[in-house]
Each structure stands twice: as structure tokens, then as C-alpha cells.
Amino acid sequence: MGETPKLGERDDVGGLEIGGDPVPRRCSMSIKEFRAIWVAAAKRMEPSVEYLNPEERAQRQRDRERDMLLIALKSYANRINMQPSELEFVQVTDMNVIQEFLKHYMHFNFLVRVSGATAPTLFFAELKPRCASEEDVYLCTPVPVPVEQEEEGHAFGACLGCRHRAKELVHPRSGGYLGGHELVYCYTDAMLDSDDDDYM
Hints:
disordered C terminus; Nuclear Transport Factor 2, Chain: A; 6 strands; two-stranded antiparallel sheet; alpha+beta
């Protein structure tokens, strides 16, 4: 009788040895076949942020922010019965991520070219991180450009979440945003790149 192969070994005839019990069961798949399936699956995955150089990572973040703010603009247009095509995203001017206990919010200022206007309009948006639909938009509205900063340490509104990290970020004077009412110092860039549902 031949010697019984050890767990994890491969002989010339069969495939991989699998199983955690004393009697291993033979897998019909060879190491070569397993490797091919694994490589194909890895190629379909989005490149990991860790392997991107700083420029690629920054561009990826700008693209993600633009996509989220286009969703916010569509939500705003629908709310005021305006055609989304009348609003053209220009650029982000300020951004902050707020974590209040188990909730996360993104506050943005961004410029929008409104049809018929001579100059871009400043907008404020509050979004769920990794905003993917209009349901993830908490607020999107134009805001007036402040003449000077108020005593609270930031422009308009009393947002405690932006008080130290984004002093120039303009908030609606009338409020209406959900985050920023608690003074919590906790922020990580990882939440913007994470696929974890905890940050969604």
C-alpha cells in the first residue's frame, strides 16, 4: 500500500487536500486551477487605495466628491422643480467630515454655475459618506458668500463639527443640516475610502 498524502499536499493524480477533520477530503480542483480563479477575481476588484500613489489617490477622491455632489445637485433641482441641466458643477472649495458618535456627515462648499447667472454660486451640501443616491443627501442649498467670519469661528451657522477643522466652510444661516451639533473630535480619512457599512 502507498503512503497516505499529508493534509495540504498534492499528489500527481488529485488536487488539493481540504478539510479540518482527521480524514481529509480531496478537492477536485488543482492548485493551478485555484490560482487561475483567484487571479481572475483579483483583476475584477477595484485597485486598493494602499497601492495608489498620492496623485492617483487625490484624483480618485476628487472624482468621488464630484460624483456625490452631482447627486446632491440633482436632489436640489428636483426639490425646486428645476432641470438638473441648468446646474453645472464647477469645483469643491471646502470639505469636512464630521463624526458624531455613530453617525457620519460630510459638509461641502462647492461652486455651481447656474443657467443665466453671470458668476458661479456657492452651495452647501450635507451628505452621507459615500453618497450613492438622493436618499443619501441630507441638504443641498445655495448659501450667500459671507462678508466676514462670525464670532463662532466659522462662516454662518453654528456648526461645531467644522469649527476647528473647516473654519471657512460656509453653512446656511437658517441651519437645516443634521451634523455639527455636538463638539466631537474624531475624524479619519479612511472613512472616505472604506467600503465598510459603518461609514455609510
